[in-house]
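Question:
Write out your own:
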Amino acid sequence: MRLVYRFILRIALTITLVLGVWSVCFYMAIIDEVNDETDDSLEDYSEAIILRALRGEELPASSNGTNNQYYLRQVHESYARTHPHISYKDSMVYLTEKGETEPARILTTLFQDGAGRYHELTVSIPTIEKKDLKESILIWNIILCLLLLLFVVMMTVWVFYHSMRPLYRLLHWLEAYRLGSHQAPLENPTGTTEFHQLYEAITRHVERSERAFEQQKQFIGNASHEIQTPLAICQNRLELLMDDEHLTENQLSELQKTHRTLAHISRLNKSLLLLSKIDNRQFTDSREMDLGVLAASFLPDYQEVYASRQIRADIRINNPLPVRMDESLASILVTNLLKNAFVHNVDHGEIHILVSGQSLSVRNSAAGEALDANRIFDRFYQGEKKEGSTGLGLSIAHSICRLYGFRLSYHWEHQTHCFQIDCNP
């Protein structure tokens, strides 16, 4: 979830909670004030009736024009002792003048006259409709909450984007940054201390990364060339020794094995150097080309090399597959997949290549089981060890695809291995 949405969500929840609590308190305060004023009127009304009753004067009508009502009755002493002398409650009363019931506040008082008799006086005064009051407060609270939320969200979004503008510029610069690309420095003036510190920290980190990257490239290049030279010298010397007529058959066999080992190490060194260059994005030249055409041009060469195994191979191009990439990497990508299909095949097997406008797939028959799809593109992983294989071909192909945003996938279907390049994943 984006930071601005988190801000809005939390502010909305906070405002809703605060307004909810405020509405409850506001309602309770209004009801308390209404009850207090009503209780004062009830006490005055009740006191006037009690004084008249005690003096033996004529009592007023039980219901007057103001909808105030009272009811006076004599009660037993035991009743008076078990009930409170003064109590208040809300109830519905029937108004004779209107012929309907309305909410009222009721005061019940117990008192004793001069003869020792107990009387219960119940007086009632119409009050507000609390249900309507609750609904009104709820409705207006919802309206207030929505208006306040709308205003706060608009202000929050404006303030957030205005304040976070330096952070977004920094994020966009980091997204576009590529190690070793010598990208232009970020111009991001800001008066916010935290953003300024973050910008300085990232700038220092980028500078350290660039220095380490350059040192790594230089070390890998120098190490590879330094290793390749003695390897070539050793191979040449072994070839000279193998031409000696005085060698025994056993000695010649051992020299051949050593020569093959050195050749394997040389290929391995070149493959690791290529992987390092791909990972370091040292291939910057790009041009338009068609992977289908490239595959069709390399296929006859591999058919000729592996003609002794009598592998049937065909290619079907439904639509062109144009890509923009380095020419040498495109050739390596296609040839690695083709070589893998021939090397890890069976005698008299089949290879089917399908090219569409979105993908290139290479299927080859296999005698073994499915490979581990989670490890197939790991370096030095080999489902079945083959003579002369370095275990880096598919890893190199995967790195090339990752470099250009392609997706290289593997699946097992009908006793065949299938590798597919999706150029628009």
Summary: The longest strand covers residues 100-112. The chain has a mean pLDDT of 80.
